[in-house]
Each structure stands twice: as structure tokens, then as C-alpha cells.
Write a structure and sequence with these properties.
The chain is mainly alpha-helical. It has 9 helices and 2 strands, in the order αααααβαβααα. Strands 1-2 form a two-stranded antiparallel ribbon. α2 packs parallel to α9.
């Protein structure tokens, strides 16, 4: 996969996911819902918005790993963080060291084979842990030698009504990304878990919540793309001494 093909695939995903988010925003205004039906739709829009976010990350990170594999990076040249990613997520799975001696020997043979291969082969599936909050997504970015998201980002595009209702005490242009995506409070992940896993229907989700979280996911998917482009431009997947070659 060439760089241009990778970027085209990611842009297609951004367009698709952005359209999904747009439809979530406009559906309540295009149909004459009864009050209870509208409440039901708005509440369950939160897990849908989260699914758009997790689906994007899974798909796009898979594309990025495919791209790296096509580069045929030599094992001696790849950044140690990516080598660790292979060891933890490939056949060796060093997090799951066996107890029995025969299995230990087989495990060490696999590890030896991994390190002796001329070219590294990265697993092309990302584990989002079905829990893609701020900490988990940053751990994924770090494990792939990508730049991480800041807890407090600068963003001038936040809709005024969203800023006013949900974080008016935070100075412009700061955007509390960790709290918006995170795992507690009224974050996307927290509300999604309450609705999808806890069966909570009384949170009081309204149109402002939908605007808030569709904006959040649109922002995030663009930021992830930027992180990938920066990594490719700077060859962060290589050890520092090989990045300028």
C-alpha cells in the first residue's frame, strides 16, 4: 500500500463516519417523533456515536499497520516500541507467559524466531478493549509510535452553544478532550457505558448532547489522521538513527 492509497482509504473513512454523524444529528428534526420516541432515539444515539468512533479507530489503525507491513521494515531498524507491540500482540504475546515448561520452550522459540526475522510483520488488528476512552486511545497511539492527544486541546471550532452549555468556565480556545472522551463524569465513554451496559435511560440526553458528541468524534477522527500523517512524514516507526536515511 502506497502512502497516497493509505490517505485515500482514511479520507474515505472520514467521509463515511462524518456522514453517519450528520445523519444522527438531523434525524430528530426530519421526522415527527412522539416525545417518548424522540427521547428513546436521543438516548440511544450515544452508543451509536461511540460505535462510529471505535469503528473508525479500528479500521484506520488497521490500514496504518498494513501500510507499515508493506514497507518491509527490517527488525533491526524498527522502533523498539513497535517491536514491543509485535511481541505483545503477535504470536508470542509476552503478556501471557506460560507456566508449563514445554510451553515455555515453545514460547521462547517463537520469540527467537520473531527477533531473528529480517523483516518485522506487525499484527493488523487493534484491540480497543471495547472501552475507547482517552487513556486507551492514547495507549494505542503510543504503542504505534504515533503522537498522543492532549488532555486540553486548542480548538476554535467548538459550536458556541456546546461551549456555553457544557464547559463555559473553560477559557477559549481550550477544549477539554480528556473529560469529553474520557471515562467518568458525563463523557462520551461514561454515558455510552451507562446506556449500553447499565440500561440507564434517565440521563436526560437532548439535542445539545448529540451536537456535543458528534462534534467530539468529528474532531477526533481528524486528529487521528493528522497523527498518522505526522508519523509517516517523520518516520517515527523507525529508530531515531534510521529516520533520516
Amino acid at each position: 500500500m502506497e502512502k497516497e492509497e493509505l490517505y485515500t482509504k482514511i479520507k474515505d473513512q472520514i467521509e463515511e463516519k462524518s456522514d453517519d454523524l450528520r445523519r444522527i444529528k438531523i434525524i430528530p428534526f426530519e421526522y415527527a417523533f412522539k416525545d417518548d420516541d424522540k427521547k428513546f432515539f436521543l438516548t440511544h444515539s450515544i452508543p451509536i456515536i461511540y460505535a462510529v468512533w471505535e469503528g473508525y479507530v479500528s479500521k484506520v489503525m488497521g490500514y496504518y499497520l498494513q501500510y507499515l507491513n508493506r514497507l518491509k521494515i527490517e527488525t533491526t531498524n524498527i522502533d523498539d516500541i513497535l517491536l514491543l507491540f509485535v511481541a505483545e500482540n503477535g504470536d508470542t504475546k509476552i503478556k501471557n507467559y506460560p507456566n508449563e515448561e514445554p510451553k515455555k520452550i515453545n514460547y521462547l522459540l517463537k520469540l527467537k524466531e520473531l527477533l531473528s526475522n529480517k523483516y518485522i510483520v506487525l499484527p493488523e488488528v487493534i484491540n480497543t478493549q471495547d472501552n475507547l476512552g482517552f487513556i486507551v486511545v492514547n495507549n494505542i497511539l503510543k504503542s504505534l509510535c504515533l503522537g498522543q492527544l492532549d488532555e486540553m486541546e486548542s480548538c476554535d471550532d467548538i459550536p458556541e452553544e456546546v461551549r456555553k452549555v457544557f464547559f463555559e468556565n473553560i477559557p477559549i480556545p481550550k477544549y477539554p478532550l480528556a473529560k469529553e472522551l474520557g471515562g467518568g463524569g458525563t463523557s462520551l465513554l461514561y454515558l455510552r457505558n451507562q446506556i449500553a451496559h447499565g440500561g440507564t435511560y434517565s440521563i436526560g440526553i437532548n439535542e445539545q448532547h448529540i451536537q456535543r458528541f458528534t462534534f467530539l468524534v468529528n474532531y477526533l477522527i481528524e486528529q487521528i489522521f493528522e497523527k498518522i500523517k505526522e508519523a509517516i512524514d517523520n518516520k517515527t516507526y523507525l529508530k531515531i538513527e534510521f529516520r533520516n536515511t
